[in-house]
Amino acid sequence: MHKYFLIGVDEAGRGSWAGPVVAAAYALKQNANYVFSPLLNDSKKLSPKKREAIYAMLTESMQQGLCHGGVGIVSPQTIDRVGIREANRLAMEEALRQVISQVWDNFQTIKIDGRDNYAFSDITWSRIEYIVRGDSFVREIQAASILAKVSRDHLMEDLAKTYTNYGLEKHKWYGTYLHAELLSKHWPSDIHRKSYAPIKKLILTRE
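-> structure tokens emitted (207 positions)
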């Protein structure tokens, strides 16, 4: 029986105070068994070591042509200009563009984690399903969740080599007391999201 691809989509970094938002799309063949299938889970529920191991399996399967993945990255400058919701949509649209160019029309559904109900260029509404907490039980969304999370972690680890004053190893660029304290001391960098309320408030206090 011919097997269609099922495409999952998820993002990472939506709540971060700095850096890009990253979305991933991942296409798995319907009913196919993959070596990584039993290991899939919401990326937030996996340890960094397990995420990296599954990420390696996902990327290897992509290289072998067994699965297809795409990653969309939207800068903090664009987030400040258009807002995080639209930036997230743009990242997802780019990730989907990459995957759909590989599977063409050989896909059944696109399942997206959450409830945002985005509209994407050249994709009909009937092929998109939004699933709240889909990264907890839909394997193609789980695969996308891990691809997005680890891809963004790698980007942020590289950025941390340049931006050394903000305690990345402690808070992963998310909003914590330590991060806020270091921002007050060192001032927001050019990769901080200036439109986010805590950072915007800090900037206003010094103007």
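The first helix runs from residue 48 to 63.
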